[in-house]
Amino acid sequence: MTTVLTLPVLLPMLGAAVTVVGSRSAALQRVVGIVVLTAVAVLAAVLLVAADERGPVVAELGGWAAPVGIALVADRLSALLLLVSTLVTLAVLVYAIDQRIADYGRGTASTTFHPMYLMLCAGVSLAYLTGDLFTLFVAFELMLTASYVLITRRTGASRIPAGMTYVTVSLLSSLLFLTAIALVYAATGTVNLADLAERIGTLPGGVQSVLGLMLLVVFGIKAAIVPLHFWLPDSYPNAPGPVAALFAGLLTKVSFYALLRTETLLFSRDKPWTLLLVLAVATMLVGALGALVQNDLNRLLSFLLVSHIGFMLFGLAVFDAAALSGAALYAAHHITVLATLFLVSGLITRRTGTVSLDEMGGLARSSPGLAVLFAIPAMTLAGIPPTAGFVAKLALLQAGAAAGLGPQVVAGVVILASLLTLYALVRVWVRVFWGKPRPPRPDEDPTDEVLVGTARTSMPMYAATAGLVAVSLAIAVFAGPLTVLTGRAGVDLIDRTPYVDAVLGAQEGR
Amino acid sequence: MTDGPGMTSRLNDGRDPVPFEEWDRPRGEWLLSGECRRPGDRSLLLEMTTRAVFPTVLVFSLYLLLVGHYGPGGGFSAGLVAGLAFVLRYIAGGNADFGAVVSPRAPVVIGSGLAVALVTGLVPAAFGAPVLSTTKLAADVPLFGPVELQTSLFLDVGVYLLIVGVVLDLLRALGDGIERDMDDAGEAL
């Protein structure tokens, strides 16, 4: 089992190596990417079952015991998110591959796309699985460096500034992250998360607050928490369709996972965290209100993405087992639904040749299948029963309602933000799918992959999107067992001992 | 500047506008040594020194790679030293010489380095040991006597290849590539 734990990180890296060496064979690259990610998805499912039945799975790299060596840990939360994320990366890869085939033909290989995509997947896996603060930094760098390439490659010159914003902000947050790690190490003498969980509690309160806040700022930038969200709606809409879907589905959620992991494991609280409640309200409202005034479909979705980060923050801010369970469920739902919506937006853009809502119309008549693919994730995001979004929001609201006055007020904001989300999406529906069909816009800049004119779409692109819709529906169908699972994950997060014992106790068991 | 007729035609090979899809793929035949784009830019002294120093530096980098487990060195620093040898040739001979030295494509070097390192990490798992663990292999080689080998050397070899590949890729993309673009645009270097 310990070998299985390292494979979700090593297999994508190996896949990246093979796709670089075989960068002249497009077929090889396609096969390697899909096989690797399928294998990782299976391994993630195995890990989830093992972690749920027997407690956290721990692997000590190189055989060095935990506080000294680097430990990989899969508990219920990380295995669940790894599974959902891998399903999303697999679907997005299928979509991207078919988009490449539609655009450039079967024979066109690339030295950058496939390796960078798989490297990003390796970084995501490592971020979920690592039990070490510095390795978490490495995972983020792996993920972000690959994302720098993906966001700037094959976009027109006009979109480079947007990529620059993204790179600059990410580098700044990485610098802060490194500073925070240095301070943590200076204060405690360790970067192992389980070891830190035991040592940080012994520090003076002021030092604890500084470290907690620094990590909040670091992950706040990466997870796009208002007021640190400004870079996201500027950069994501400028990435090509599948890349935007990948980023929207994964990057902010991995950062949220890191925030959740560090704040729960390292800093124990016995009452709701007021600062984070305020940030959650701001994030939900700024995102939702921002989405209402957008005319660019991808920008609108980006603001909704920001808004729904606030929902997860609410779960973390309430800081009890039920709320953390809701946050975990919400993260799983959010990863799938945002990726789906960005893929659908890519399909819409390929139909209409534009991202401007003003220039679209009548798609319900001309492509009813697309309308269905948009309607289901849209309802899921807005949280209309019986979708996954409803299940996740219900879990959050129930936890919030039971946690005192502050969380109850914020629960009201959650409902308000859900209604605003619904309004924003209905607006998209009316303007894109109803009305008179309009002729598609011609492609003005052939080097730009975001606006591709009326390039061809292929069945697998629809199939990949439909697959993600199915994952999202499956979350709703299996809501019962999933809620039980995240419930246990929430208890683990508050309890902390299963994680700490699994990591630090591993050397005694040998 | 005087270019021989043969040289001009050769330099113009594959100099059509780069198709966007293939910007990162080497085009055409690699240039041969001595065919400098601007012969006036050549420095004979530096070229001669480089000829002597280049193999020495490469051997030194291999030495660093091998002693890395017990002494200062290792795959990363050895790779950088080897990379510097290529940088020296690039500075002495310009892009023409660089093309002559390097025939493997940089991505292949990077990818095989990464693959070697990862496989080294995974092999212990096949013997029931934790991933990335190392062991000492000892053998009695005729003539040499007993030889000990840390398996982490293979990881270092992978890192070495990876770093050399990255330096080569940087020289190609940021050195040679930019020089060629500026040359095409008629700008002074």
TrEMBL record, chain A:
Q: From what superkingdom does this record's organism come?
A: Bacteria
> Where would you find this protein in the cell?
Cell membrane; Membrane
Task: Name the Pfam families for this protein.
Answer: Proton_antipo_M
Annotated membrane topology is: Multi-pass membrane protein
What keyword terms does UniProt attach to this protein? Cell membrane, Membrane, Transmembrane, Transmembrane helix
TM spans, by residue? Answer: 32-50, 80-97, 109-128, 134-151, 163-187, 207-231, 243-260, 272-293, 300-319, 331-349, 370-397, 409-430, 461-482
InterPro entries given in the database record: CPA3_Na-H_Antiporter_D, NADH_UbQ_OxRdtase, ND/Mrp_TM
User: Is Transmembrane helix set as a keyword in this record?
Assistant: yes
Residue ranges of the NADH:quinone oxidoreductase/Mrp antiporter transmembrane domain?
131-414
Subcellular location, principal:
membrane
Protein family membership:
Belongs to the CPA3 antiporters (TC 2.A.63) subunit D family.
Q: Supply the name of the protein.
A: Na+/H+ antiporter subunit D
